[in-house]
Amino acid sequence: MNELRTEILVVGGGLGGVAAALAALRRGRRVVLTEEYPWLGGQLTSQAVPPDEHPWIEEFGATRSYRRLRDGIRDHYRRNYPLTDAARQHPALNPGAGWVSKLCHEPRVAVAVIDELLAPWRSAGRLTILQPARPVGADVDGDIVRAVTVRRLDTQATTTISADYVLDATETGDLLPLTGAEYVTGFESRAETGEPSAPEHAQPQNQQAISYCFAIDHVDGDHTIDRPARYDHWRSVEPDFWGSPLLSFGAPDPRTLRHKPRVFDPNPGDDALAVDADQSREQGDGNLWTFRRIAARDLFAPGHYASDITLVNWPNIDYFEAPVVDVDDATLRARLDDAKQLSLSMLYWMQTEAPRPDGGTGWPGLRLRPDVVGSADGLAQAPYVREGRRIRAVTTVVEHDLSQAVRGASGARHYPDTVGVGMYRIDLHPSTGGDNYLDVGAEPFEIPLGALLPQRMRNLLPAAKNIGTTHITNGCYRLHPVEWNIGEAAGHLAASCLDDDRQPHEIQAKQPLLEDFQTLLTRDGVELRWRDGVSGY
């Protein structure tokens, strides 16, 4: 067994973990960062999900370091890819011209930019990255986490890392059960939270769907994959609330719940530079090909791409048959494999049976692109996890803190201890309890420091989607820029506690300390309040 000692341990190298590590490193602290998948970046990279962002992201509503990540992605394309002159000169370059985001791109580009951001600290010996490694144990003394043990997935060697502060930036809050921290999963009851959309009784196993995303293009030839083992099962599934078979181009509209047919039209020859992704005006999923397109061939030199590349993250690959959090390892493996079978079945159906506009069936020219997602089977390295464990926090964000229907013209709740901002509709995908979409308009919101503080643990901090939200408010606090902001605030908090010999709860509870901390965040480029006049959708 190996042993390491550091000041701040960040377990989980997704967006929150990377942001937390960078914030602590900028503050002069030593950091160990662990990640179980080959790529750092979580939902942006190993899960292959282009950033879900609010309409004002180009001007405000994100931290300075998140903007550096976004700018770095565009700069990477401008430096390394044969863009057309018009695309290169476009100030808001959207390489994929996808409708889901103003910055749709190949996941590997984000990996390169993240590696660039971390490189100076690694070469200086201030940052140690253990990868691929998964947490398997913890040494806890009362309310203090003394150390965490991780196991490498390639060699099975274990390393125990002791640290002053431990940040859980895993995708499902893996450190919470390992450390004995109090947490919640699934739906809370309306009696507990008072939320209008909550059920009467708590449903801890009722969790949002996961998805195994994949990238495809459309080229000459027959690229049909082998018939998936579970194809007959998934071809027969037709959920009561769906309005069509799951393997189709139709799905419920999240906002109306009425069945919504979609079009699938590969390489439509649209004007890629004219795409203006704005979810407040246009959902953009009319043509599934362009919805999450990550490479628009017309933005690059003729012949560079034989086809557009699109990312399949559609409702039809949402796996909501059973939960994947707080189940034993064998059950987890079986359910993840079933989720993979759903995604492969969707692809096989598109290649062989999907109705074409010309009256034919199937697009055998659809080609799976394992090189784009960095895996052997062609699916993303990791499942897209929308919801995991959430801490029992000092402050829990509830639906009526930001729901448009409840808040009206008053806007979202203002928190005196805000450490950042975010915006997205409350967007819950179908869940393992058999629930349809829950989609609620929201107001631009703040991130309270109290939501980053466990009720009992003293040096364990959440740094991703595992903060003090509910099942419902997790639906808008789980997106890319918000997760980054959460991690950045957690990294700063741990560094400030070390600088001043304080505890996290003390900084939140004492006004002078809180104001000093918020001043520090502002100085480092963290926006704490929304601009006047900004309303949600």
UniProtKB/TrEMBL annotation:
Gene3D superfamilies: FAD/NAD(P)-binding domain (3.50.50.60). Keywords: Membrane, Transmembrane, Transmembrane helix. Pfam families: FAD_oxidored. The chain crosses the membrane at residues 6-25. One of its GO terms (molecular function) is L-aspartate oxidase activity. InterPro entries: FAD/NAD-bd_sf, NadB. One of its GO terms (biological process) is NAD+ biosynthetic process. This is FAD-dependent oxidoreductase. It comes from Jiangella anatolica.
